Amino acid sequence: MTAPAPKKVVLAYSGGLDTSIILKWLQTEYGCEVVTFTADLGQGEELEPARAKAELLGIRSENIHIEDLREEFVRDFVFPMFRANAVYEGLYLLGTSIARPLIAKRLAEIAAETGADAVAHGATGKGNDQVRFELGVAALNPALKVIAPWRLWDLTSRTKLLEFAEANQIPIAKDKRGEAPFSVDANLLHTSSEGKVLENPADEPPAYVWQRTVDPEEAPNTPEMVEIGFECGDAVSVNGERLSPAALLAKLNELGGKHGVGRLDLVENRFVGMKSRGAYETPGGTILLEAHRGIEQITLDAGAGHLKDSIMPRYAELIYNGFWFSPEREMLQALIDKSQEHVGGTVRVKLFKGSVRTVARWSDHSLYSEKHVTFEEDAGAYDQKDAEGFIRLNALRLRLVAVRNARAKG
């Protein structure tokens, strides 16, 4: 039985050519009402043109939603992730991955607010984003139908897309008539570039791919010191100035970008099974990760820190694969947040020629005891003779194994 056509659809809408084509396709394919949702996540683009484009395509003003989500994005998604020091496959700071659950959340909420029975997105059938959007919506409102036009329509080439746009009087920017050199996704945490000139991993990314950071070789010849204050695992100030989450990340982006910090050329494993090459820029996030690890070095107990590090790859994988709203991610988050209760203080980092390095850290919650580790007289703070029994007990099982092995050989 053919599923009934949706009556009202909330579309994740950028105002660009592809989502404008999707908007018109939804209207023509289903004859449905379309509600557009455009999120400002700090991508650095003027979003009001999306309103004008939607109106041009027949969307009523009350059905156009353009929202500034920068503070919510950093406070409720980026910061919790950074408490975990989450890094996918050892390198990737998950800049695109962590933005998708917030978009999915607002799609589901706007659908409820407007009485829509479906949502739609512009992710292709080859990528991770389709999974992230749809898992998020399924977790938040399983009754919603999800429409993924790239998996449904016959507009399978750039030529067909342009022909559809022209036939439906959708404005086409001149640079869209040719093949784009690469695809860009941006938000306050990072910039991601993929495809076209980047598809061959044997070729170095062209210089023009990098948009948020200066070439480290061209960065200032003088290092810059930056002090970052933390409370309960979250950064709260830069150089003594208390800032909101979004303003703080924007400040770190500015500082890191100036010094060429945060570039990454990565071939990663997509959840859907293929490998993908991307050029990522995460200047503020790279500084934040280094500083957070710096403050944890003196405030986090060894057992807690080692346990936290052991679960981090699983936590990062859950975010990458789209399971932000899963029970297991929420369980891990509770553990991570518990570990951060005393992670507060100040870290000084040095920015220089593409690198960021912790050079000092201090905290009222520090577990570091100079009198215990000093090479000078420790005034009885630590009895070195205690180490003998400690070593003998830990060596016991190794001695027993050695004896057993020698006996077996004999």
TrEMBL record:
Keywords: Amino-acid biosynthesis, Arginine biosynthesis, ATP-binding, Cytoplasm, Ligase, Nucleotide-binding. Residues 8-171 form the Arginosuccinate synthase-like N-terminal domain. The keyword Methyltransferase does not apply. ATP binds at A12, Y13, S14, G15, G16, L17, D18, T19, S20, A39, G122. InterPro entries: Arginosuc_syn_C, Arginosuc_syn_N, Arginosuc_synth, Arginosuc_synth_CS, Arginosuc_synth_type_1_subfam, AS_cat/multimer_dom_body, Rossmann-like_a/b/a_fold. PROSITE patterns: ARGININOSUCCIN_SYN_1, ARGININOSUCCIN_SYN_2. Signal peptide: none annotated. L-citrulline binds at Y92, S97, N128, R132, S183, S192, E268, Y280. Gene3D superfamilies: Argininosuccinate synthetase, chain A, domain 2 (3.90.1260.10), HUPs (3.40.50.620), Single helix bin (1.20.5.470). Belongs to the argininosuccinate synthase family. Type 1 subfamily. Homotetramer. HAMAP family: Arg_succ_synth_type1. This is Argininosuccinate synthase.
